């Protein structure tokens, strides 16, 4: 790696932290190289490189952020590149930090929104980093609650608010990307403007709209509109003025929208970007004081890990979520947490652990009652979703008869509005039929799913179909497979 020209001032901050960590120059270089490998980088630093850093030279690219992460892991506290006397984090790493304060969290997540809104093509290429899951989940589990989130409430009393109506989403799914207009003549939100209950209600309504679009048409349908909304509407609110109660509700709504931005990014295979959104949603949930929602974010991260084949990390994230909530969560939430753990075990082929987690999920859901106070984000987890989880797990464990039974049940119970989930389940059923030797039915089901995938903007939907097609290879000369391929080719 080439270095920038040497500066005259020795880096005393870095020297002090090296001494505190007990690193030798060679030991620090080796750890930076190892962390670089986790990010797909071949760095090849040595003790001479560290000597140059101590003399004041600045390493290029993402290296300052990697060095900071090495010290964060060693010392057990979050350190930034600036804390080490180095240049700021490069964009490829920014967003994985778990902020020390709510103010810092707003700075990090708003920077992510702005970068995504302006140059999303670059951000989509960032790789998913399994090592980047460790510090955020640990800090969420053992970190202290934020004592104060209020901002400038006294100042807010002196700022006139001119009857600003809450923004309401005005599009239906049939109309495409939602339009979120301002009232004619309505002023832009000014700095320090007071956040109202209507503002937060608008955030919630916008979240429901985008969630509906995502379920029906895929994450790519309106993702950029959501990111722009976060940048232009949510960030000014977070930088406005509000008391403690309003502030907690504001951070909760921001966490929900940020998680959704991550979810839609995940659906289009922008996995590194999605991971960063999830980490920041987790931090915003902590600022909201909503432990249960934080567990949901961790479950979302676990889902992504399952999809990418990181079963061990998926199990760990689900278990951290369970520890964070304890037994205080509603039965539906408990079922969701245990089902997520089961999916991780399924990827790993751990039959007993997977079965035990599924049983815990089933028992938890059985204790749910109609009058339970279920969070809005957990209401999707019903009998149809549990059957879907069973179907996926049994498929991964190659228990195809059980997978088919549960997938069929899920499709019978699942509402049509959950189009993408139904597609996934149909592919699971097709895979199970194939495993049972029922080639005709398998190909018919997969052809239906392929037709649905062609109508969505969802990389995951396409990948589900491609995974089935890879399983067809041993039967490629059979008549049902040729018919299937003809149907898919006709879709373009």
From TrEMBL:
Residues 161-194 are annotated as: Disordered. InterPro entries: TPR-like_helical_dom_sf. This is Regulatory protein. It comes from Streptomyces collinus.
């Amino acid at each position: 790696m080439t270095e920038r020209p040497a500066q005259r001032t020795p880096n005393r901050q870095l020297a002090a932290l090296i001494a505190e960590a007990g690193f030798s120059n060679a030991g620090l270089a080796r750890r930076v190289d190892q962390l670089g490998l986790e990010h797909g980088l071949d760095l090849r630093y040595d003790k001479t490189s560290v000597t140059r850093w101590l003399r004041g030279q600045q390493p290029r690219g993402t290296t300052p952020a990697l060095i900071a992460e090495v010290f964060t892991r060693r010392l057990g506290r979050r350190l930034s590149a600036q804390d080490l006397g180095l240049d700021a984090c490069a964009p490829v790493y920014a967003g994985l930090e778990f902020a020390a304060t709510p103010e810092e969290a707003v700075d990090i997540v708003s920077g992510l929104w702005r970068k995504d809104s302006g140059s999303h093509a670059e951000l989509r290429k960032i790789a998913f980093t399994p090592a980047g899951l460790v510090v955020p989940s640990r800090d969420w589990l053992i970190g202290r609650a934020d004592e104060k989130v209020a901002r400038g409430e006294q100042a807010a009393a002196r700022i006139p608010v001119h009857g600003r109506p809450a923004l309401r989403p005005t599009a239906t799914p049939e109309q495409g990307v939602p339009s979120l207009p301002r009232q004619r003549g309505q002023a832009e939100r000014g700095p320090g403007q007071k956040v109202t209950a209507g503002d937060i209600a608008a955030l919630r309504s916008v979240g429901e709209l985008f969630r509906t679009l995502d379920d029906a048409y895929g994450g790519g349908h309106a993702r950029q509109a959501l990111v722009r909304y976060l940048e232009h509407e949510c960030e000014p609110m977070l930088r406005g003025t509000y008391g403690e109660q309003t502030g907690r509700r504001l951070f909760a709504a921001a966490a929900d929208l940020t998680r959704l931005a991550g979810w839609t990014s995940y659906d289009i295979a922008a996995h590194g970007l999605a991971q960063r959104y999830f980490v920041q949603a987790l931090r915003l949930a902590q600022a909201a004081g909503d432990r249960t929602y934080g567990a949901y974010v961790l479950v979302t991260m676990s889902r992504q890990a399952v999809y990418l084949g990181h079963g061990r990390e998926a199990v760990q994230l689900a278990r951290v979520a369970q520890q964070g909530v304890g037994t205080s969560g509603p039965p539906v939430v408990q079922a969701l947490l245990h089902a997520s753990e089961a999916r991780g075990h399924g990827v790993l082929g751990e039959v007993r652990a997977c079965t035990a987690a599924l049983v815990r999920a089933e028992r938890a859901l059985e204790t749910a009652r109609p009058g339970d106070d279920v969070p809005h984000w957990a209401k999707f987890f019903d009998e149809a979703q549990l059957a879907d989880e069973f179907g996926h797990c049994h498929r991964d464990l190659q228990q195809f008869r059980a997978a088919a039974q549960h997938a069929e049940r899920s499709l019978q119970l699942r509402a049509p509005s959950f189009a993408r989930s139904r597609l996934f389940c149909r592919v699971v059923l097709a895979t199970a039929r194939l495993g049972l030797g029922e080639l005709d039915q398998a190909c018919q089901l997969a052809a239906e799913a392929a037709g649905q995938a062609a109508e969505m903007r969802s990389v995951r939907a396409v990948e589900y179909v491609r995974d089935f097609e890879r399983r067809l290879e041993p039967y490629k000369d059979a008549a049902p497979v040729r018919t299937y391929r003809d149907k898919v080719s006709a879709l373009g």
